[in-house]
Design goal:
Layout: H1 3-19, E1 25-29, E2 32-36, H2 38-42, H3 46-53, H4 57-61, E3 63-65, H5 71-83, H6 102-115, H7 119-136, H8 144-156, H9 163-174, H10 176-179, H11 183-191, H12 193-206, H13 210-221
Parallel strand pairs: 1-3
Antiparallel strand pairs: 1-2
Helix pairs in contact: 5-6, 6-7, 6-8, 7-9, 9-12
């Protein structure tokens, strides 16, 4: 199929999505509804295929309510199903809202793609996350939105689903010099054990020798072996300094 033919198909799907023409299913979320087509949603989502094929009320009534989700994220999911893409830039508002940052939006899209079994959408959300991290990971001028997105990713993704987690872990490993001075990053390490373990594993996997592993930890935790706010002596994998040295024994 040529690029022009593909674009023609996408344009046609965009028109029927916008008009609702020939729809045979309705998705509700919050105070919004979308007239959709079973052929489009079921061919890309195992969740919707089972819901529409099975002996469920949704299949009989031709509608479904997604009560647990954010309508803006549901709309992005539906956009992807029709257009093979979605907009990860929030509508312009006064001031900065961390919930509107690209990292937050893409994390929620990645999560909803997992919830409704749309693996290709997860791939797109991961690639958009990588682009956002490379472009401007401090969208609010600080690292607060970045750390908030980190927390969201580790809250909404399973340990077995490491696609988006690995994206963030690679970024953390390459920005240890900046993150070692981040109070919010260290607060997340303390409050989210799953995240802390993944950071430790990733840092050690990325460093082939004990010497480089120690150097990596000193970059992240600070050469004085204290956390960003100076309140905790964390100790090192080698040298066993400080009151927590037993953890490395």
């Amino acid at each position: 199929m040529s690029a022009n033919n593909h674009q023609d198909i996408i344009a046609g799907l965009a028109r029927v999505k916008a008009s609702g023409a020939y729809h045979d299913f309705v998705i509700h979320c919050g105070d919004r509804s979308w007239k959709v087509h079973r052929l489009v949603i079921c061919s890309q989502s195992e969740f919707f295929r089972k819901a529409c094929d099975g002996n469920f009320e949704e299949a009989r009534k031709g509608e479904m309510t997604l009560a647990e989700n954010d309508p803006d994220i549901v709309e992005r999911m539906i956009d992807y199903l029709y257009l093979s893409d979605y907009n990860d830039v929030a509508a312009s508002t006064e001031g900065f809202d961390p919930n509107d940052c690209r990292l937050w939006i893409n994390a929620l899209v990645y999560a909803i793609a997992g919830q409704y079994a749309i693996p290709h959408l997860q791939t797109v959300a991961r690639k958009k996350t990588e682009a956002a991290l490379a472009c401007n990971w401090k969208e609010d001028g600080t690292d607060e939105s970045f750390v908030k997105a980190l927390d969201l990713v580790w809250t909404t993704t399973p340990q077995s689903g490491r696609g988006l987690r690995n994206c963030y872990l690679a970024f953390v490993n390459s920005h240890t010099a900046e993150l070692r001075n981040s109070k919010s990053f260290f607060e997340l390490l303390r409050s989210n054990a799953d995240f802390m373990v993944n950071v430790v594993e990733s840092a050690w996997d990325a460093a082939p020798t004990t010497t480089t592993r120690t150097t990596t930890w000193k970059h992240l935790l600070g050469s004085d072996t204290q956390s960003a706010d100076g309140t905790q002596d964390v100790g090192w994998p080698s040298g066993k300094k400080g009151k927590d040295k037993g953890r490395w024994s």
